[in-house]
Design a protein that fits this description.
Blueprint (H helix, E strand, L loop, with lengths): L9 H22 L4 H13 L2 E2 H8 L3 H13 L3 E6 L2 E9 L1 H25 L1 H19 L1
Antiparallel strand pairs: 1-3, 2-3
Helix pairs in contact: 1-5, 2-3, 2-5, 5-6
């Protein structure tokens, strides 16, 4: 027995789109010895500086227990530094080290190059529309 769905599988399409985007980015990450998750952490830290680990987990879309392991490996590799939040000793903050920030700078060029290619391929208006629709979808589902 099969079920016919009137709509396409949007979660699967979004995952497929993500994987398509990562096909161009992943080789650069691997050259630097980074996993996708490590890159997401470094990107958050590169954009925001010192960040509470809960916020890193939310913005990088990594579950807390997984983030603990990711941060431990990144700390071991000298990419991040963790410390107690001076404002609240119960919390932990994380920041990219100089080595981690250099890695972000090295990767930023290839990542931005990919976005420029995407903008040229789709057109500025379509890319802006895509961003707008995704923001709308996220807001709608979170309300």
């Amino acid at each position: 027995m099969s079920t016919t769905f009137p709509h396409r599988n949007l979660p699967r399409l979004l995952l497929q789109a993500r994987e398509s985007l990562m096909l161009r980015t992943r080789p650069s990450l691997r050259e630097q010895g980074l996993s996708d998750q490590q890159w997401r952490v470094l990107r958050v830290l590169g954009e925001h500086g010192t960040v509470e680990t809960g916020r890193v987990a939310r913005e990088a879309y990594i579950l807390g227990p997984s983030l603990t392991g990711v941060l431990a490996r990144m700390e071991r590799d000298g990419l991040v530094r963790r410390a107690r939040d001076p404002a609240d000793q119960r919390r932990t903050v994380v920041e990219a080290t100089a080595k981690g920030l250099k890695m972000v700078e090295r990767l930023a060029g290839s990542v931005e190059g990919h976005y420029q290619w995407l903008e040229q391929s789709l057109g500025r208006q379509k890319l802006a529309q895509l961003y707008e629709l995704l923001d709308e979808l996220i807001a709608l589902e979170q309300s």
